[in-house]
């Protein structure tokens, strides 16, 4: 039953698409828009004004951007600025709702979750982070309870942070594999990719680089300058290089030349896009056994899962890298994380919602 659906994607209110403020969600919106259009569905995107997304036309909505949820405290009340773009986005969605079969929300915010039952079964949500606040936890539980099937996460470990073991759709994620080139013969160096911020635990990867003497290529936006300076001072003799915040093309050019990607996150990663980007280049992933990466990495086959926050185990895993077949890493990306695999998963969810 492959009917042609009219789908409205409502983006995150923290920044215009293309600004990078929306982090991983920007790539997720783009990839889902691409696969839905490829499969013949009509895709419309509503997002904060000045948003841009490749060839997609966007309904630009004005208003004040929303505070980043991860900068707030767990017990904080909902904050809505005057002339909030979040409120304006959902005012718009409500006005045009009858023109769509499905309205898919990407905002990690209370308002759209609360509105779920008011949209007569059309409104569904892809939750983009783990549990961060009581108000969001409660809104997610209420949406599932009132509208079963209306919530998707990227991984089961992400869902578990909300205390959920069932009653949701697990979408995983995907990347455009044609942008990532396989590399069989790497240099003797390691990669670390991510926002440079305390919850990403960069210092552990730097410590492992210092212990093994293997150079560490660091890529990503410096979000916390003081945190970065502390690392540089505390590990002044570690063989590290900061390569900046790179485009996908430049990022994969660097990562593919590495023996492994090292993931040292302190918090529960909802998914771990950088892990599938590495696998797509044939690069094994060594990660703390915490959150999304535990559902991506096949331990001892496409990488190693080590005891969280244990630098010695990182070092031991680095010393076992020759046991990993880099081609198998690429194969896993092709089987599970291609845009085509994502297309199957998103259609499965949408048709499930339509038929219920
Ligand atoms: N914070 N309030 C709020 N709303 C979002 O949609 C949001 C956010 N913080 C981060 C974020 N989205 C995305 O960058 C991550 O989900 C990837």
Can you give keywords for this protein?
356 residues, alpha/beta, Rossmann fold, 2 domains, seven-stranded parallel beta sheet, six-stranded parallel beta sheet, 12 helices, binds 7,8-dihydrobiopterin
Written overview of the protein:
The chain is built from twelve helices and 13 strands. The chain has 356 residues and is α/β, with parallel strands linked by helices. It has two domains: 6-174 and 338-355, Glycogen Phosphorylase B (Rossmann fold), CATH 3.40.50.2000; 177-336, Glycogen Phosphorylase B (Rossmann fold), CATH 3.40.50.2000. The strands form two sheets. Strands 3-2-1-4-5-6-7 form a seven-stranded parallel β-sheet, sandwiched between helices. The protein has a six-stranded parallel β-sheet with strand order 10-9-8-11-12-13, with helices on both faces. α9 (273-280) links the parallel β11 (260-263) and β12 (285-288). 7,8-dihydrobiopterin (HBI) is lined by residues 12-14, 22-25, 66-70, 107-109, 128-129. The site of 7,8-dihydrobiopterin has 17 residues, from α1.
